[in-house]
Amino acid sequence: MRFMKIHSFGPLEEKPCPICQSDDSSLVTVEPVFGEDFHVVRCRNCRLIRTNPSPSSEWKDCFYDPACNGIMAAQGRDFVYLPSEQRHPAYHSILKLLKSKLPAGARLLDAGCAVGGFVKTAENYSFEAVGCDYSETAVAYGKQHCNAPLFHGQADCLPFDDASFDVVTMLEVLEHFSDPFPALEEIRRVLCPSGTLLIETPNYLPYYYFERYLKKIKPLYCKATNKQHLPWYPFDHLTHWTSETLLRALATAGFKQCITHSIKNFRIDTPMDRPLSRLFRLYSSVGNGLYQLTKMASLDFRTALIATAVKQ
Ligand SMILES: [Zn+2]
To answer: Where is the Methyltransferase type domain (predicted)?
Structure first.
């Protein structure tokens, strides 16, 4: 790879399924990237899809080190944290959903807030909002340029007292953990009794079906979306959630009233050009409609997973 300055970023680690601890899995796909053959596998017991083996902390340190990775040298360690106006429509949709469940002035923590775009938007919905992120650079940028009330800290070691928040949000965060349970446990600690957790994460069921049954038309997908692979990002997304496994993980972490929500045309990523955008809206309507009709997790092809759960 042209941007790799060293032969390998380091070793990968074999781990059991974080939900059920099983080692028994079937192969979904192999993605060759950054000099590794990343294996995406599906647990035969609980059906969690994950990257296994996954990057070790040594691999990640090397990946983000400009001395080893030319992307980081060119764009900086935290290029992914730049504020994205494109996410604002999604933020409004999520905040409207939360507003319908919580009173004005509710205390909100956005865990994995990057530069705090969601936190600032939440203030306009009368939430008393703060954010927390593991990136010191992102937190410093958000404080300086967006005047956002942000704190530095890992999701599994939050710098807040017990029962400090009425609601915690995690947007595009859960998929980055190879084991989400330390973070979910920590979020339970900082939530007040009956506090709400909201998680938004990509829905990987369509891509799983694609790999399993539609492999032959993968080149068509790649041509239409101008991508070389399906969006597994297996070096960065270490767990690939479906509504079934997400709700199971939340229940396993001790949350109750775990449910998913449908939001019309929900999309948190960058916008598409016109023909593709029309196709996306059509797909989104079909996905939402099919789920409303059947309520079956095995037919849940909604464009993203949006789940809420309540602390017991
Ligand atoms: Zn499992």
So the answer is: 109-199
Same domain (yes/no): 146, 212: no
Greatest mean pLDDT range, 61-75, 159-173, 214-228, 261-275 = 159-173
239 C-alpha to ligand 1 centroid (Å): 11
- Rounded to whole angstroms, how far apart are CA atoms 293 and 171? 27
**Residue of 194, 192, 173, 160 whose CA lies nearest to 246:** 173
State in Å: Cα 28 to ligand 1 middle. Answer: 14
**What are 218-252's pLDDT values in tens digits?**
788 777 777 778 889 999 999 999 999 999 999 99
Ligand 1 mean position, distance from CA 37 (Å): 22
Show the tokens assigned to 97: 């959903």
Predicted model pTM? 0.91
The CATH number linked to 173 is 3.40.50.150
Q: How many domains does the chain have?
A: 2
